[in-house]
Design brief:
This protein folds into 2 domains: 2-155, Rossmann fold, CATH 3.40.50; 196-410, Rossmann fold (3-Layer(aba) Sandwich), CATH 3.40.50. Helix content is 49%, strand content 8%. The chain contains 17 helices and 7 strands. The longest helix is centred in the middle third of the chain and has 19 residues, at 167-185. Residues 203-211 have low confidence and may be disordered.
């Protein structure tokens, strides 16, 4: 079936497949598959799945141990392992991987279950690994890191997502689309780009622009944050299963005072110039990526003074609750001013490159109130080695934030979906 599905995708002209599954207790099968093929003890590969209790985790480990002892799967035979300790959905995904590889189609793996299916496919046809991309690392399902290591794959993201419904791979795919746009923009024929916007330089009539340490950073709204967390806890999913996405949603609620900030909220990139001209190729890359995601880009020249810079970034933040800070050799003082102005303006700040992130981290130690407004992407969430300057990492990371807004606005609670709540684990009785 899986091979046939991949063939159908190839016939349609599809170039990428995101396999996913919906199941109960199938991480038990994933643990058994990984233990069998890699010859590892059940304790080392079995995780909590949908946040089960300690008692059920112990029971899960024993089930894996019993399944291996009774069925004696052959580690050298992928079909034998699948037949004895696998499941229909994992077999289908393994077939999709084999079929996709045969048709030169990329497969973006999601969580532990799709990765265990990849182990099966790899045991059958080792060269299929060249068609695989790992989207995100699981922090709780212990089978996945062992499987990825065996396959020689490094995940792009670390989001602590505990679902296998293509939740993580869909984010990775959108980031991959932007990377391909950046690659295409390096073609000399595509470097005809409009100049970036210049924000207003009107000085704000406040003490914010008069002294280095007089910024007025409001505290996040804890009442709204609690309400946002309550909604997240009652969404029709295992509790806390969306990891960092849930933390971002709560952080945004506290900053904006809105439990459900609209998914299409405006985003901007503030690019701080150090005096040098932006290379044409880099300009083309940023223009292509931001145009694809409707991100406004503002260039702040080095010639403006601190008060003008503060006023400009504050004005941008007031109309863009999602703000990426990028620098082009700008000094630390310029980044600090922009960071404080963005926080005062009520925006979530994404340090958009390694240099900016380093400055922001150092300044947040001095001014801890700013930490509530900052979302660090490197290396907390984006684990791929992306050494991109001028806010490009922040453009990619904005896809993670958009996913967080999506779960708040588009997922239903147990009550709205009219389904029963969990009876075990952290979500019992919610």
């Amino acid at each position: 079936t899986g091979i046939g599905l991949a063939a159908d995708c190839a016939a349609r002209g599809d170039r990428c497949i995101l396999p996913g599954e919906m199941g109960i207790s199938n991480t038990t099968s994933s643990a058994a598959i990984t233990a069998a093929i890699l010859r590892l003890p059940p304790e080392e590969v079995t995780g909590r799945g949908a946040n089960i209790s300690d008692e059920r985790l112990h029971h899960k480990v024993e089930i894996v141990r019993h399944a291996l002892a009774i069925n004696q799967p052959d580690p050298q035979d992928g079909i034998d392992v699948l037949a004895k300790v696998g499941g229909f959905e994992l077999g289908c995904i393994a077939g999709i991987i084999l079929g996709a590889a045969a048709h030169h189609i990329l497969v973006v793996l999601d969580g532990a279950n799709t990765t265990s299916a990849a182990l099966i496919a790899h045991a059958i046809a080792p060269n299929c690994v060249h068609a695989l991309l790992a989207s995100h690392a699981s922090l709780t399902e212990h089978s996945q890191p062992h499987a990825l290591r065996h396959l020689g794959l490094t995940p792009l993201l670390r989001l602590d997502i505990r679902l296998s419904e293509a939740a993580g791979s869909s984010i990775a795919l959108r980031m991959l689309e932007l990377m391909l746009r950046a690659w295409a923009a390096t073609d000399a024929s595509s470097r005809c780009c409009a100049p970036f916007l210049l924000p207003p330089y009107r000085t704000l009539p406040s003490s914010s622009a008069t002294g280095e340490n007089t910024y007025d950073i409001p505290a996040p709204n804890r009442t709204v944050m609690d309400a946002a967390q309550y909604r997240l806890d009652n969404l029709a999913k295992p509790i806390h299963s969306l990891g960092f996405l849930e933390h971002i949603a709560v952080q945004l609620a506290g900053i904006t005072g809105k439990i459900r900030l609209p998914s299409n909220s405006r985003a901007a990139l503030c690019l701080l110039s150090g005096g040098e001209e932006l290379p044409a190729e880099r300009h083309a890359i940023i223009s292509s990526m931001t145009a694809a995601r409707d991100i406004d880009v503002y260039l702040l020249p080095a010639a403006i003074d601190r008060a003008e810079r503060h006023a400009a970034v504050h004005a941008v933040a007031a109309g863009h609750p999602l703000l990426i800070l990028g620098s082009m050799g700008s000094d630390a003082a310029a980044v600090r001013t922009a960071l404080c102005a963005a926080a005062e303006g009520g925006a979530l700040v994404l340090p958009g490159d390694a240099a900016t992130d380093h400055i922001v981290r150092e300044y947040c130690v001095i001014s801890p109130a700013l930490t509530h407004y900052v979302l660090h992407l490197l290396p907390e969430m984006i684990t791929a080695e992306i050494d991109a300057p001028a806010g490009i990492v922040g453009i990619l990371g904005l896809e993670i934030v958009r996913a967080a807004l999506h779960i708040m606005n588009d997922m239903k609670t147990f009550t709205e979906a009219k389904v029963a709540v969990a009876s075990d684990g952290a979500g019992a009785g919610r």
